[in-house]
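Structure (tokenized):
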């Protein structure tokens, strides 16, 4: 289990470090089609640093599949609704490959406030 402290680090740097470990790229025995059993714990997520005007301008978009079903939500609204953990989880999920192993890899992630 690898622990990453997110205090005074930017969102992208923390997410990138966690995604590398979840993929197994920090190991010599890296094989891209296997899930390595090493998990990642991220602590102090509420102390993460956001640069610029991202708190106001960054948009999270989802689509239901129906006409007019596109929903937009800002960073501030998402953190108020789901917390800082969800923002970091979505950032890491976006950095993992979109394949059958994505769900298995994201389950190895533990985020603590």
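Design, position by position:
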């Amino acid at each position: 289990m690898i622990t990453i402290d997110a205090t005074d680090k930017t969102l992208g740097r923390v997410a990138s470090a966690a995604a590398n470990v979840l993929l197994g790229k920090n190991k010599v025995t890296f094989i891209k089609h296997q899930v390595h059993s090493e998990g990642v714990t991220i602590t102090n997520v509420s102390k993460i640093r956001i640069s610029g005007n991202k708190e106001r301008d960054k948009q999270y978009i989802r689509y239901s599949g129906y006409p007019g079903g596109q929903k937009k939500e800002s960073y501030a609204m998402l953190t108020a609704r789901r917390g800082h953990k969800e923002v970091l989880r979505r950032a890491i999920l976006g950095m993992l490959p979109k394949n059958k192993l994505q769900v298995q890899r994201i389950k190895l992630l533990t985020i603590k406030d």
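Reviewer-requested clarification: The mean pLDDT is 95. The first strand starts at residue 2 and ends at 5.
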